[in-house]
Design a protein that fits this description.
The structure holds two protein chains of two kinds.
Chain A (H helix, E strand, L loop, with lengths): L20 E7 L9 E5 L2 E7 L5 E5 L14 E5 L2 E5 L6 E3 L15 E7 L2 E6 L1
Antiparallel strand pairs in A: 1-9, 2-3, 3-4, 4-8, 5-6, 6-7, 8-9
Chain B lengths: L6 E6 L3 H13 L5 E6 L21 H4 L12 E4 L4 E5 L4 E4 L4 E3 L2 E4 L3 E3 L12 E3 L3 H17 L5 E5 L3 H12 L3 E6 L11 H12 L4 E4 L3 E7 L2 E6 L4 E4 L1 E4 L3 E3 L2 H5 L10 E3 L10 E3 L4 E3 L2 E2 L3 H15 L13 E5 L2 E7 L9 E7 L4 E7 L6 E7 L5 H5 L10 H5 L16 E3 L4 E2 H11 L4 H8 L9 H10 L16 H11 L4 H8 L8 H11 L16 H4 L3 E2 L5 E3 L10 H14 L2 E4 L5 E6 L4 H10 L12 E6 L13 H12 L8 E6 L13 E6 L2 E6 L11 E7 L1 H18 L6 H7 L6 H9 L7 H14 L3 H6 L2 H4 L18 E4 L2 E4 L9 H7 L9
Parallel strand pairs in B: 1-2, 1-7, 2-3, 7-19, 9-16, 10-11, 10-16, 11-12, 18-20, 33-34, 34-35
Antiparallel strand pairs in B: 4-5, 5-6, 8-17, 13-14, 14-15, 20-21, 22-23, 23-26, 24-25, 25-26, 27-28, 29-30, 30-32, 31-32, 35-36, 36-37, 38-39
Classes of the chains: A mainly beta, B alpha/beta.
Chain lengths: 126, 858
């Protein structure tokens, strides 16, 4: 599980801030706009979405309402100005930037940092 | 069941008025001061006699039932059916029933109704001569027609004696049974009581155009048997060969019980009552068509209901009086509107008539005003009664403008009629505009259904329903047609835009006609529209990201994120080898198997990455996608049909397979289910399907708009005894018209009901797809031909395309690793999911808020 190239880099000195470890999950070109995929990083399922404008976001793949690992299979869209994904099971809508459920403000899914390095999609873990 | 202090009330008759009376009493008597026993001679509780002809148009006795669920479960209300009151013993204050029961009363209400008048014609007692009054009468007519059809080679014929309102209803019923009716009326015009001479002329030509032969100014001299048929001779010498005769020449009050116990009755019948509906015995009341109030019988349901409310009020200590009632009528006979209101015959002294006759458009309208041309007195509408509900409320009021402009069929010129608050909108339930408007604002009502439930307006004849809609609009209730926040138009409008502008991608559509980047509502709608317009495989290009998860993975998602796989088993027919292949595949992948309600096999518990392998095995064994995942045609269920069944009259299995293969893959606003039964026993339950076909001796009957599920609805009969070619052509048009014009997630049942502005949708549908009134049939036919020609199996389409196939992986960075959250335990020798467990306490709130629950495969 995991790829050989994404081992965490050892640091010379302990940092006062939490260290982010970046994991390469795929090429940007492998992602179809508005069509999510699932990545498995350290045993955790992460839903990764490339938007129409090529921004990429990542949130936890488990739908908190059902417990099923399905959010990557939801429909990507917008509500007002927020980029969203809708759970395919019972249609609750989640903000892709914050991870908050827009239908139930007290519920949220984890969100992960994403960066693009040389056409590769990397997900950051604290 | 008798509590201390309760007084006994006996109600004789459980017709529409008798039932309304006890409901009103129950409503006004929450403490149950009255112990009520209702006695009805028919074998069933009260039903909607006004809608009787719909019994031949797909309605069942149950659909017509008027008694609210559980009404007679109340300890203070009892209903005895199949029992008659044989005598009233006024001195003892008790009634004796045909079952020998003795029921004491403190108050007695006679709601015995009326009986059909049969003129003294020699032969009127012969078999196959009927009256038109009860469901039992209709069942007799249906049996006689069925027997006639099995022995006649040509078309069967029937005669209706009486060309009034009921006679034309009876002719309509015969026509629904596939019989060519003759209508015989003594008066020189049809509906002589409601329609004047000008309207009568137009009515005759409109009715004759519908395969009804009208004989006016003559009557029946005699009826004799002629082999197994009947031969009727009219007084003008005409001879008619007939299979059934229906007498529908007016009604007479049923006052025998009252006569026998010495109550006062009128010279021409009817139980004499005062303005409180009390008879000559202070303990006995009479209501409805048996009662003679103010010297006349009020033969409509509206006045009957008013009498019911008068007596209910009196028994509860009130003093309401019956002071006459609105005798306006509006009906749609065989699609022809006829309405009359107020002083329709201009009988008031000096009354003036303004008439507009347009034989080209097939409409006639007349307004009657007083001699000063100031007050509206009444009117007649034939052919187009759309102005009825507004014109009727003007009776007795000042003429609001040019009378010709009021009745001429011109587009709304802004000369809108403003109703006064006390104007009566619903004459059946006697509800005013003010009462409706305050219910709308006080209760926050937003839909016609809610207004009906809350005010009872529109629950009788239904003619004021269009007015209820405009009152909702007038009260500021906006009914938005917007699909979602991204598209301001309805699905049907969006369909037309995409079709006419030849748009082929979501980006083009949303940038040109919407806002944002869509959502889980508009994206699947657009995916479905594009699929209906034959734009290639549903997972190509941008389309893949529009699909709901089921379409995106060509399988049905389950609660744990696994999928189910359903191969097509057309018509439910499968070979032993096919069964073995499915069984072997299920065993190899450890899938849970279940037989569905749509006569096929569901394979559950497949993970995303297993789907293509399972499809490969199924396709190799000769199967294809069953589209269980799509808003598309699901199955065409069939019975075993004439090839094996001793009752079957046509080969239902072959037709079901042909239909399923013709419409497979057709994307639509919601799922479509169909059924074909090989005889009238209906083992395929076709009348609960969107499209139902039932074999007859002579061909096929087509039913549309049926539904099981959440809101069951029997399908409407659209075609009778048609051949295979016309059947398929009509189904083609029905489905394509539905695909193009229905709302998102609207099943055919509610779509059919909404057609034609919600008034007689099935008649509108028939005019569009059978008579081609909109001139779109050629276009619909062409669209269906294109669908049939372009069909391709969607599973095979994935297996043959590496790009599409690449999406079926569990993890993009670990394609072969199974999803660790999916696991199973054993139950009855098969798997069932373990979990999944919701992560949040508010999951209940979440799922109850959800728009659509998971779909059950069928």
């Amino acid at each position: 599980m995991g790829l050989a190239t994404d081992q965490p880099q050892p640091t010379m000195e302990p940092s006062p801030l939490p260290q982010t470890y970046w994991h390469v999950v795929c090429e940007l070109a492998e992602l179809t706009p508005e069509h999510g995929v699932t990545a498995l990083v350290r045993g955790i399922q992460i839903a990764v979405f490339r938007l129409y404008d090529d921004r990429v976001f990542a949130v936890g793949n488990i739908d908190p309402f059902s417990g099923a690992a399905v959010l990557s299979r939801g429909i990507v869209g917008t509500r007002g100005s927020a980029a969203t994904v809708t759970s395919p099971l019972h249609k609750q809508v989640f903000d892709l930037v914050t991870g908050h459920c827009l239908d139930h403000p007290q519920v949220s899914v984890p969100r992960y940092d994403v960066r693009l390095v040389n056409g590769k999609v990397e997900i950051g873990f604290p | 069941m008798f509590s201390a202090g309760q007084r006994n009330l006996v109600v004789v008759g459980n017709g529409m008025v008798g039932q309304r009376f006890v409901e009103l009493l129950a409503e006004g008597d929450p403490d149950r001061a009255w112990q009520v026993t209702v006695i009805g001679e028919e074998p069933r509780p009260a039903y909607d006699r006004v809608a009787l002809s719909s019994f031949f148009d797909g309605s069942t006795a149950e659909d017509l039932n008027l008694v609210p669920d559980g009404f007679y479960d109340d300890a203070s209300y009892a209903l005895l059916v199949n029992e008659e009151v044989v005598s009233v013993e006024r001195a003892e204050r008790q009634v004796i029933t045909s079952a020998g029961r003795v029921l004491p009363y403190d108050a007695l209400v006679l709601a015995t109704g009326s009986y059909p008048f049969v003129p003294p014609v020699p032969g009127s007692e012969l078999p196959n001569c009927f009256v038109y009054r009860t469901i039992d009468d209709l069942e007799g007519i249906r049996a006689a027609v069925a027997a006639a059809r099995s022995r006649n080679r040509g078309r069967s014929a029937g005669m209706v004696v009486g060309g009034g309102l009921l006679g034309l209803e009876a002719a309509h019923a015969l026509r629904l049974l596939g019989i060519s009716p003759h209508v015989v009326e003594m008066a020189p015009r049809l509906m002589p009581l409601q329609v004047d001479e000008g309207g009568g002329q137009l009515l005759r030509s409109l009715i004759q155009a519908l395969d009804v032969t009208v004989h006016l100014g003559t009557s029946t001299a005699q009826i004799v048997t002629d082999g197994e048929r009947l031969l009727a001779t009219l007084t003008n010498g005409t001879e008619l060969d007939l299979d059934v005769v229906v007498f529908s020449a007016g009604i007479r009050p049923r006052d025998q019980l009252a006569r026998n116990c010495g109550l006062a009755v009128g010279g021409r019948g009817g139980i004499t009552v005062d303005e409180g509906c009390r008879t000559s015995d202070e303990h006995i009341y009479a209501i409805g068509e048996c009662a003679l109030v103010d010297g006349r019988i009020w033969g409509l349901v509206g006045p009957g209901y008013t009498m019911a409310s008068v007596v209910a009020d009196r028994l509860l200590g009130g003093g309401t009086t019956f002071t006459g009632a609105d005798m306006s009528t509006k009906l749609k006979l065989m699609g022809v509107d006829v309405a009359s209101f107020g002083d329709a015959m201009a009988s008031a002294e000096g009354a003036l008539e303004v008439a507009v006759s347009n034989p080209v458009a097939g409409s006639y309208a007349k307004l009657v005003v007083d001699d000063q041309a100031q007050t509206v007195l009444g009117g007649v509408l034939v052919g187009d009664a759309s102005k009825y509900s507004t014109l009727r409320t003007l009776v007795g009021r000042d003429l609001p403008g040019d009378p010709v402009a009021l009745i001429a069929n011109v587009e709304d010129t802004g000369n809108r009629l403003v109703l006064a608050d006390d104007a009566q909108v619903c004459s059946c339930a006697n509800v005013s505009k003010g009462a409706i408007c305050s219910a709308i604002t006080e209760q926050g009502l937003t839909e016609v259904g809610e207004v009906k439930a809350n005010t009872k307006a529109g629950t009788g004849c239904g003619s004021c329903v269009s007015l209820l809609k405009s009152l909702l609009a007038e009260s500021g209730v906006a009914i938005s047609k917007a699909l979602c926040e991204h598209f301001a138009m309805s699905r049907a409008e969006l369909f037309d835009i995409v079709r006419v502008m030849q748009l082929r991608s979501f980006s083009e559509i949303v940038s040109g006609y919407g806002t944002g980047r869509g959502c889980d509502i508009c994206k699947p709608v657009i995916a479905s529209i594009l699929a209906s317009l034959n734009t290639g495989h549903i997972l190509d290009g941008e389309q893949a990201a529009l699909q709901d998860t089921n379409d995106r993975y060509l399988a049905n998602i389950q609660k744990d994120g696994s999928y189910s796989v359903v191969p097509r088993i057309a018509g439910g027919e499968i070979t032993p080898q096919g069964l073995i292949a499915i069984g072997q595949i299920a065993e190899d992948y450890g899938l849970y198997t279940k037989i569905t309600g749509g006569q096929r096999i569901d394979l559950l518990g497949a993970r995303v990455e297993q789907l293509p392998e399972i499809w490969r095995r199924l396709v190799d064994a000769g199967f294809e996608s069953g589209h269980a995942y799509g808003k598309a045609l699901r199955t065409v269920k069939s019975c075993v049909g004439s090839s094996w069944c001793r009752y079957g009259v046509q080969d239902s299995v072959t037709l079901a397979i042909d239909l399923e293969l013709r419409y497979r893959g057709l994307r639509s606003p919601h799922k479509i289910k169909a059924g074909v039964s090989g005889c009238a026993r209906e083992c395929a339950e076709a009348q609960s399907k969107d499209v139902g076909v039932i074999a007859t001796e002579n061909g096929w009957n087509l039913y549309v708009g049926g539904n099981g599920g959440f809101r069951p609805r029997h399908a409407n009969l659209l075609l009778i005894d048609v051949d295979r070619e016309s059947l398929i052509r009509t189904i083609d048009r029905f489905l394509m018209f539905y695909v193009r014009t229905a709302d998102r997630l609207q099943r055919t049942a509610s779509w059919v009901e909404s057609l034609g502005g919600g008034v007689d949708g099935i008649a509108y549908l028939r005019s569009v797809i059978v008579e081609d009134s909109l001139g779109i049939c050629a276009d619909l036919d062409e669209a269906m031909a294109a669908h049939v020609a372009n069909y391709a199996d969607e599973w095979r389409g994935v297996l043959e395309d590496p790009d599409r196939l690449s999406r079926f992986v569990s993890f993009i960075n670990a394609p072969g690793t199974p999803d660790p959250t999916i696991s199973f335990r054993a139950e009855r020798g098969q798997i069932r999911p373990v979990g999944p467990v919701p992560l949040t306490v508010s999951s209940k709130a979440g799922s109850s808020q959800a728009g659509s629950a998971l779909e059950v495969i069928g």
